[in-house]
Amino acid sequence: VTGPFARLAATADFGSPLGSVRSGGQSGFINADISVHLQRLPEGEWLCLEARGSAETTGLGIVHTVVHDLHGPLGRITQAIMANRMG
């Protein structure tokens, strides 16, 4: 059985693909850094990730994700992303 905090930690990396940062097919993005900031511990089985991202033509970007449980927002995840040429 996985507890609520372990579930949050396991899903923290999902903000990057959910954040709608697109590279035009020439490259993907890797997570150079990830930070999890909580104002309270999650409760229950369900988590919601509300992710927004942006990237510059330099290949650097950032994704901000607000994490919710059944009681509302509980924290924020921030990911620094870098373009990684595919192929």
Short description:
It is built from two helices and four strands. The relative contact order is 0.31.
What's the SSE blueprint?
Blueprint: H1 4-11, H2 15-18, E1 27-38, E2 48-55, E3 60-69, E4 72-85
Antiparallel strand pairs: 1-4, 2-3, 3-4
Low-pLDDT residue intervals, each spanning 5 or more residues: none
Largest sheet: 4 strands, antiparallel
Overall average pLDDT = 86
Overall shape: elongated
The strands making up the biggest β-sheet line up spatially as 1-4-3-2
Strand content: over 45%
> What gyration radius follows from the Cα positions, in whole Å?
14 Å
N-C termini distance: 39 Å
Q: What level of helicity do the residues show? A: 10-25%
Compressed to H and E, one letter per element, the order equals HHEEEE
Secondary structure category? mainly beta
DSSP strand tally: 4
Helix segment tally: 2
Structural features, described:
The structure is a single chain. With 87 residues, the chain is mainly beta. Helix content is 14%, strand content 51%. The chain contains two helices and four strands; from the N terminus they run H-H-E-E-E-E. The chain has helices at residues 4-11, 15-18, and strands at residues 27-38, 48-55, 60-69, 72-85. A four-stranded antiparallel beta sheet has the order 1-4-3-2. The mean pLDDT is 86.
